[in-house]
Amino acid sequence: MSETQATKVVEVVPEKKVEYWKQIIYVMTAGWIAIWVYRTALAPIYPEISAYFGGATDSQLGSISSFYFLGYVLMQIPSGLLVDRFGKKTILIPGFLLFGLGTLVVGMANTLLVVYIGSVLAGVGCGTYYGVAYSLTAEHVPSSRKSLATAIVNSGTAVGSGIGMISSSYFVSQLGLPWQYMLFFTFFLIIAMVFIFWKFIKGNKESAAIVSQTKMITEIPEAKPSLKTLMRPQMLGAYALYFATCYAYYLTDTWLPNFLSTERGFEGATIGLASSMVFFAAIPGALFFSRIADKFSHKKVSLIIILEIVAAIMLFLAVQAPNQVLLMVGLISYGFFGKLAVEPIIISWLGEHAPKRGIATTLGFFNFFGMSSSVIVPSLTGAISDATGSKVYAFYLSVIIILVGTTIFYLVNGRTKKA
Predict the structure, then answer these.
(1) Which of 23, 96, 109, 158 is the 20 to 30 A CA-CA neighbour of 202?
(2) Of the listed ranges 44-48, 101-105, 136-140, the one predicted with least confidence
């Protein structure tokens, strides 16, 4: 080939750009990592936090997470409405800045009351994220890859959980660093994410143009969601199922490290490592079952029900295990079949039944009812522990709740065809 020909070949090669829907997946995954580092960093170091505040009880420690999730849940419906009205980027960036402020308040607190205030602020700030993340995937990701894309985005929760639990266990429990350092580390992650959102998330007009170009508008009916639509039996069944799913998941998120430490003999960094295995096991489970759901889209309801039942059985077997090996097998199996595996399929199913315009509002209602369990479970589990001397009864309760929620979902949607 001559020099002239080589030059021509170089000139006609177009610059490769990452498609916007793929860019969304990367950015939203990173956002969940930052959020979940915060959510899980404190759970493995409750004993250190208790000592710092003069011997706080399990109920008081559990309330730290409960106040965070209270702010998060209360923001779900307003956030969905605001996102649909003003745009995703406009709401997301201020929300994350508030998240950062709340994180700093918790890290600098001298009393539990101030910790609770900071937790509420952080929760309100994070409350803007869910509707933005999954309305972006609903609008821009090709329909044949929606469940898989949601699973990838959700994998950020597992990665963030692992980082939070392992880091706090190692640096605080094992090396003896102040527990506040984990909050300051999270603050820097949050600020980095604000810059990433500003650079990579497109505004309303640009986003609408991309949706129009990809001709994805006709995938879901255009009607705006009404209260009647949001509260029809199909949706109520999904809300009940998600409440039950989240209840068990946030029990493991907030209290599993302490349970392993105080009742199953785990020590130091192994607490965080063992707890994080639940979340890491969820990544292959989510990717595997999401591919199945995309391939057999007409079987999503059946797949959801099977996963929920298996997850409940695995969690029950884990807390019944007579030794640490069987306990870890049960917990890892629960992670593989549990919330992070089934949630992308539920969200994908929900997107098929929700109006395209106003999807963030629909997701806000869905997440509000589901995440209400996260407000209840941390402090309720602490109260059960204070009253009985063990958290095992709280795990039994979560198994029952999963089975009840799954039964309600099946009765409402088991034989319902897509509208």
Answers:
(1) 158
(2) 136-140
